[in-house]
Amino acid sequence: MTQDDRVKLEASWKAVLADEFKQPYMRNLADFLREEKQQGKVIFPPGAQIFNALNLTPLPQVKVVILGQDPYHGPGQAHGLSFSVPEGVAIPPSLLNMYKELQRDLNIPIAEHGCLQSWAEQGVLLLNTTLTVEQAKAGSHAKTGWQRFTDRVIDCVNEQCENVVFLLWGAHARSKGERIDGTRHLVLTSAHPSPLSAYRGFIGNGHFSQCNKFLQRTGQTPIDWKLPKAAVVQTGLDL
C-alpha cells in the first residue's frame, strides 16, 4: 500500500508511518485488496474509513488505546473504529457489555447508539489489529499484513507518548502487551467483553474508572465516557 492521494492520513501519523507504507508487505497488501475488490468481494469498512481510528485521534492526542481484533463483517457495521458502529446500526453484543460495565463502574446510563466517535475525538485510539475484512468472513484478512502495520502503530504510541492507558481485553489484545513499556504507561487486562467471556472477568473489571483516575493522576483530562445522544433513529436491525 503506497502513501499517495488515495490514502488520507492525519499529519502526525503520516509523519511516523511514512516509511511503513513503503515496505513491500504494504504494497502486497494494497495489491491484495485491489484484487479482492476486482473479484467482486465486498470489503469492510469502506476504503475512506480504513484509517478512521488514526484520522480521528492524532498521535500527540492519544491518551487511551482500546484494542480490538477484526472489523465487524456485517453490512453497515464497520467504520474504522474498534467496537464501534455508526449511529442507526444495532449495538453489537460486545459493545453492549462495555456499556453494562460503564453503568456498573461509573453509573453511566447505557447509550442508545453504538457510535464511539466522541471517545476517539477525546484521545481514545480505537484500533483494530486488522483493519479490513471480507463480508461475512471473520478473520479473513488477519494474515494479509495488517497485524505488522498495527504493531507499528502500537510501537509509535509506546515510544512517542507518555502515560497512555492501554485497555487489552481478551487473549489476542493481551498478546500485544509485550510491546508496551509498563513503566511509562498503564496496561489493564481482562477477559473480552464478548458474550462468551464478559462474565468471566470483563464485567466488574473497573477499567473505565481506573483509566480516568490514572489520567487525572498524571495531569491529563479524564475521558467523558458518556456518549452524546444519537442524531439518527436506531433501526433495531441486528446486522
From TrEMBL:
<keyword id="KW-0326">Glycosidase</keyword>
<protein>
    <recommendedName>
        <fullName>Uracil-DNA glycosylase</fullName>
        <ecNumber>3.2.2.27</ecNumber>
    </recommendedName>
</protein>
<dbReference type="Pfam" id="PF03167">
    <property type="entry name" value="UDG"/>
</dbReference>
<dbReference type="InterPro" id="IPR002043">
    <property type="entry name" value="UDG_fam1"/>
</dbReference>
<dbReference type="InterPro" id="IPR005122">
    <property type="entry name" value="Uracil-DNA_glycosylase-like"/>
</dbReference>
<keyword id="KW-0378">Hydrolase</keyword>
<keyword id="KW-0963">Cytoplasm</keyword>
<comment type="similarity">
    <text>Belongs to the uracil-DNA glycosylase (UDG) superfamily. UNG family.</text>
</comment>
<dbReference type="InterPro" id="IPR036895">
    <property type="entry name" value="Uracil-DNA_glycosylase-like_sf"/>
</dbReference>
<feature type="domain" description="Uracil-DNA glycosylase-like">
    <location>
        <begin position="55"/>
        <end position="215"/>
    </location>
</feature>
<comment type="function">
    <text>Excises uracil residues from the DNA which can arise as a result of misincorporation of dUMP residues by DNA polymerase or due to deamination of cytosine.</text>
</comment>
<keyword id="KW-0234">DNA repair</keyword>
<feature type="active site" description="Proton acceptor">
    <location>
        <position position="70"/>
    </location>
</feature>
<dbReference type="InterPro" id="IPR018085">
    <property type="entry name" value="Ura-DNA_Glyclase_AS"/>
</dbReference>
<keyword id="KW-0227">DNA damage</keyword>
<dbReference type="GO" id="GO:0004844">
    <property type="term" value="F:uracil DNA N-glycosylase activity"/>
</dbReference>
